[in-house]
Design brief:
By secondary structure, the chain is an alpha+beta fold. It has helices at 44-52, 98-103, 113-123, 139-151, 169-186, 197-203, 221-226, 231-236; strands at residues 2-11, 21-29, 33-37, 59-64, 67-71, 74-75, 83-86, 157-161, 190-193, 206-211, 214-219, 241-247, 251-254, 257-260, 271-275, 280-283, 290-299, 304-309, 315-320, 331-336, 340-343. The structure holds adenosine-5'-triphosphate (ATP). One of its GO terms (cellular component) is ATP-binding cassette (ABC) transporter complex.
């Protein structure tokens, strides 16, 4: 069931000549976690603020839980939208206990704010800490308080701006999983804004990727990563190799050798083969049809990245296991397991 719909939403700020959000349409289902990603200035925060009611679009409409919250000049005010918001810096009241922080927005809205606040803090794993103050908590715990405060009034949608950016790398993996679990347990629909592709890929049901205000693609993490609709989306999730190749009846010829593949019959002129470093298998035997000369190996602990070159000087990067030692200038034999074929 659709809970949020944006239809042809445009937003241009005063004294700017480009749209911050340009003709964006998408829908979010109930209980879904959607991440908005894109480089700095792509319009993520503006989109979040439009949904929250902190900005008004120039055109288009937004509906939430079956009600148009923005259309034309009409707009439901931010405080009447039933939207929960978690800010990047958590925005907790430092002089209030955790319990009072969560109770703050509930007064006058529910019959027993105290019980609901305690239940929600317990839900986020903070039942021992009701009377503590925010400064007595870790970053991850503070974030859970902010989350409890946002979900306690049962919002139609939860908006989180860069939820993981203030956490260090070790804490991040754990917090990401905790937050996803809490959100899934409560069944709340959530939109995260993030510029971190790992955060988006690991926490979201779907990801929407923006570029210069335009929505490029909205899809599951796997589909976005494996079947990007264009080069921008592909490279946003980590660099991919692009190789010119000539189609024949049985496959494609490239500077690194021959790749057997039936799709070659669909093409009559040079194509671009696109694949990520991890879509390549480096082989021990020299019986492979593809090879290149090793220019450089970069060690990452759990794998190494080999930069290899064909006879014409074209380079690609391929991933190999960490423990094999390759000599510089050695011939590296490989097969490409999965690749996309693009017309030029
Ligand atoms: N209040 C404002 N007034 C004028 N221009 C703005 C305002 N807020 C944002 N912009 C512009 O709108 C565009 C989109 O900005 P937005 O903050 O939505 O992007 P973002 O993807 O969230 O970026 P970041 O990751 O850096 O936060 C940018 O070109 C930005 O300069």
């Amino acid at each position: 069931m659709t809970i949020l719909e944006l239809h042809r939403v445009h937003k241009k700020y005063l004294q700017t000549d480009q749209f911050a959000v340009n003709d964006v349409s998408f829908q979010v289902d109930k209980g879904e976690i959607l991440s908005l990603v894109g480089e700095s200035g792509s319009g993520k925060t503006t989109l979040l603020r439009l949904i929250a009611g902190l900005e008004h679009p120039d055109s288009g409409y937004i509906s939430l839980a079956g009600q148009k919250i923005v259309e034309g000049k009409k707009s439901v005010p931010a405080n009447k939208r039933n939207v929960g918001m978690v800010f990047q810096d958590y925005a907790l009241f430092p002089h209030l206990t955790l319990l009072d922080n969560v109770k703050f927005g509930l007064k006058g809205k529910v019959s027993d704010p105290d019980k609901l606040a305690k239940d929600t803090l317990s839900l986020v794993g903070l039942s021992e800490n009701f009377s503590k103050y925010p400064h007595q908590l870790s970053g991850g715990q503070q974030q859970r308080v902010a989350l409890a405060r946002a979900i306690a009034p049962s919002p139609s949608i939860l908006l989180m701006d860069e939820p993981f950016s203030n956490l260090d790398t070790i804490l991040k993996d754990q917090v990401r999983e905790e937050i996803r679990q809490i959100i899934k347990n409560t069944g709340v629909t959530a939109i995260f804004v993030t510029h971190d592709t790992r955060d988006a890929l690991s926490t979201s049901d779907r990801i929407a990727i923006l570029h210069k205000g335009y929505l490029q693609q909205i899809d599951t993490p796997r589909n976005l990563y494996e079947f990007p609709v264009n080069g921008y989306v592909a490279n946003f999730f980590g660099r991919r190799n692009e190789l010119l190749a000539t189609p024949t009846k049985e496959g494609f010829y490239s500077g690194f050798g021959f790749i057997p593949d039936e799709r070659s019959r669909l093409f009559y002129s040079q194509v671009r083969l696109c694949f990520r470093p991890e879509n390549v298998r480096v082989e021990k035997t020299d019986q492979q049809s593809m090879c290149g000369k090793l220019l450089k190996s970069t060690y990452f602990g759990d794998h190494q990245l080999l930069k290899i070159q064909d006879e014409e000087g074209k380079t690609i990067k391929v991933r190999a296991n960490a423990h094999t030692i390759f000599e510089r200038d050695a011939l590296i034999f490989f097969t490409v397991k999965q690749f996309q074929v693009e017309e030029i």
